[in-house]
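Per your request, structure below.
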């Protein structure tokens, strides 16, 4: 029996959360379907697809920023590829490829067009004009979409109430990470047992903080650095912070660390392959994002038994409940983030308790095998069974 052919339309060729979702889905389902991908440039994502024997078509005119001429050219390039290859399913990710890809797919009669919402970025637009533009584009694109996949309840509600999409066309699908990441014991401490007390935090035995993500405004890394500056003023240099990732804010972030006098406590690693392997070596993972879908980095931290401190926004709050399995801080408040980190430094028993609860919960809900099982039903038009 011939396999269904599925096209994933991505934008950036990096390995951040959006791209890793596609990697998880394709690697978990390639025995059942034939996959191909469109991307804007060569890079780590394209290399990973080559490892999976998935063809990638690079379209240099597919840009992140709005550019009418490039956008029109990219649209017809995508449309011609879809028309020529006659895919059974087109699955888009992110705003720009989501807009162009969905309209192109429906215009040539693709039977099933799917879009995954990785957090609505325009929900946090800095101006009413930006919000209006991106909202209008999403409103149009949704009319060319058979199914919208969302990862949190706020995005589901937005689709139904604001974009006026029928409930049957909006499907919740939780993210998932490699099943094997859940099966290890950190520091010989088994969740469910009484958590051990960490040795006293000091300069010689610092509290280790981790950030993993693209250094750009959405992830808000500058807020984390501001919070670390406050923390040092209050407690002294009793912490070390690892910043893993790269992006447009790298230079500004390095400069801010020097300005705040925390450059000896903060180390910038750039992009690190398999950063998840470094997570168990840290005491806390911080995600100060201003918007999210369902961040893989939080799930990876939960699996690694690292206490999560996250901004109190949709997406994060679908994973973390304050003082139950992690800590939430007031979004855009470096002072509140510093206060939450101080709580963990002062109360290692609480920190271990939260991380163990998070690990147990993640192990039952956020495995890649479960995510792919449900996505397979969507691709086979059995979404009602999820």
């Amino acid at each position: 029996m011939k396999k269904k052919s599925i096209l994933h339309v991505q934008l950036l060729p990096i390995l951040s959360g959006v791209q890793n979702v596609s990697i998880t889905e394709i690697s978990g389902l390639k025995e059942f379907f034939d996959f191909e991908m469109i991307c804007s440039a060569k890079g780590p994502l394209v290399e990973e697809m080559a490892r999976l024997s998935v063809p990638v078509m690079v379209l240099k005119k597919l840009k992140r920023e709005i550019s009418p001429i490039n956008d029109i050219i990219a649209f017809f390039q995508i449309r011609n590829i879809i028309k020529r290859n006659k895919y059974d399913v087109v699955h888009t990710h992110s705003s720009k490829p989501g807009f162009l890809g969905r309209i192109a797919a429906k215009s040539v009669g693709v039977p099933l067009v799917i879009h995954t919402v990785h957090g609505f970025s325009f929900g946090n637009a800095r101006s009413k004009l930006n919000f209006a533009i991106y909202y209008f584009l999403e409103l149009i694109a949704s009319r060319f979409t058979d199914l919208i996949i969302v990862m949190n309840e706020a995005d589901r509600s937005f689709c139904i109430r604001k974009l006026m999409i029928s409930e049957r066309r909006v499907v919740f699908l939780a993210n998932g990470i490699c099943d094997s990441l859940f099966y290890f014991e950190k520091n010989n401490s088994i969740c469910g047992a009484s958590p051990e007390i960490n040795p006293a935090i000091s300069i010689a035995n610092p509290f280790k903080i981790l950030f993993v993500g693209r250094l750009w405004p959405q992830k808000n890394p500058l807020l984390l650095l501001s919070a670390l500056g406050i923390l040092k003023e209050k407690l002294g240099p009793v912490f070390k912070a690892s910043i893993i990732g790269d992006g447009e804010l790298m230079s500004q972030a390095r400069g801010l660390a020097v300005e705040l006098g925390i450059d000896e406590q903060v180390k910038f690693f750039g992009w690190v392959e398999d950063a998840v392997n470094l997570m168990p070596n840290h005491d806390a993972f911080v995600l100060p994002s201003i918007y999210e879908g369902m961040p893989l980095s939080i799930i990876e931290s939960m699996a690694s038994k690292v206490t999560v401190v996250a901004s109190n926004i949709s997406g994060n709050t679908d994973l973390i409940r304050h003082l139950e399995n992690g800590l939430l801080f007031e979004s855009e408040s470096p002072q509140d983030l510093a206060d939450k980190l101080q709580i963990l430094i002062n109360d290692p028993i609480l920190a271990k308790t939260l991380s163990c609860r998070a690990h147990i919960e993640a192990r039952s809900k956020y495995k890649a095998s479960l995510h792919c099982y449900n996505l397979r039903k969507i691709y086979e038009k059995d979404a009602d069974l999820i």
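The chain has twelve helices and 13 strands.

Regards,
D.
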